[in-house]
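Appendix C reproduces, verbatim, an entry submitted by the partner laboratory led by Prof. M.T., so that reviewers can inspect both the input and the predicted structure.
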Amino acid sequence: MNLAQVETTAVGTTFLNPTAHFNKGADRYDQGCEKVKWLAPTLLVHKLQQFIDLKVTPLHVLDLGTGTAAVATAIIGINPEAEITGVDSSVRMLEKALEKNVLRQGICGDLEDFNGLKLPRNHFNLIVASGVFDFIRKTPQLSEGIVGALAKPGGIFAFTYEPAGNANPGVNTLQHDSEGLKNMFRRRGAVILADEPVPHIWENYKNNNPVTNHILIGRAP
């Protein structure tokens, strides 16, 4: 699988400038999630508990594209001592996340430039990204940053993504080839633990059809 083949389909145009999109919509983002029944954060954390003890201490978590900290909030509900670093390219979304008092640290920056973020190396037990791959084109850089730089040896990473050829697509999102994504992580020594479809992760607001995503979970070398 050629890396250029990993991202195969673009649906809409939000991915062209997600930072501007989320800065504009930050004040009503949580209400919008309720309206479209966005279940990804809850389902991701539920699935994670099959592969990692979220009650362990210390639990160092990197929440990529933290948004308004929905995933972080779910993790803190299980482990109030979890030390969660949230990263988002939208300063307005990050402000909303910090208001919830579940992040130890909030960083505003480009998710495709890990060197620029100045995050600690080989530090995180768990790296999560809910809805982030919908807007990321440079998946090789992202996978290298997750597995090659940021995760502790044996650390767990987990994210949602919309698969290429999805019969129930979202709106304004990128779709990714499943085998291409998994092979990128495998080439960096990671082990894929799960790649499971979730047939109703949210509702397409244009036609009210359920949107299918996958939850991918892996372990760093």
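The CA atoms of residues 158 and 217 lie 4 Å apart. Additional entries are available on request from the coordinating office.
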